[in-house]
C-alpha cells in the first residue's frame, strides 16, 4: 500500500525544508532546483509548479528568516534604562544569529544579485530601520535634529554596524558570541551614551 498522499500545503513545506538544507550547504549561486527536488522526494516539474524560479524559493525562505530574527527582538525583558535597552537588543540579535546559522548566512553573509531577492533584502532592511527607530524613540536624547529624523539616523547607524559585524563574524566564528556582543556594545554605545547623559 502506498503512503498517504501529501496535500499541496504539506508538499510545499517539504520543499521549503529541503531547499533550506541545499541553500545552507551551497549558498544561493551553488544551489540547484533539481537537487532541491531530489531532496524533497518530488520531481522537478512538481517543484516548479510550487516555485517557478529559484529566486522565488529563496525569497520565501529569506522572508521567513527575517521574520524570525525580528520576532526575537520582542523576547527581551523590559529594560530599566537606555543602556540596558541598547545592550539587550544587541544580545538578542546576536543570540538569534548564533542559534540560526542558516538565517545568519542568508541575511548577513550572502547578497545574491537577483532583483527579486534583492527586493526582499531591501524590504527587510526598511523594516529593521522602522523597528529600531521605535526603540530609539523611547530613549531621551539631546540633539538639535527633529526627533523623528534623529531616531531614523540612529537606527540606520545601528543597523549598518550590526549588519557589518554579523557579516564579519560569519568568517571569524572562533570569536565567542559574548565577546562579539561586548565589542559591538562598546563600539556603538559610547557616542549614544553621551547624548543620553546630556538629555534634559
UniProtKB/TrEMBL annotation:
Residues annotated as domain HTH tetR-type: 9-69
DNA-binding region: 32-51
GO molecular function terms attached to this record: DNA-binding transcription factor activity; transcription cis-regulatory region binding
GO biological process terms held by the UniProt record: negative regulation of DNA-templated transcription
Claim: Transcription is one of the keywords in the record: yes
Pfam families, per the entry: TetR_N
Keywords tagged on the record: DNA-binding, Transcription, Transcription regulation
Entry annotated with the keyword Transcription regulation: yes
Protein name (Swiss-Prot/TrEMBL): TetR family transcriptional regulator
Taxonomic source organism: Amycolatopsis albispora
Organism lineage string: Bacteria, Bacillati, Actinomycetota, Actinomycetes, Pseudonocardiales
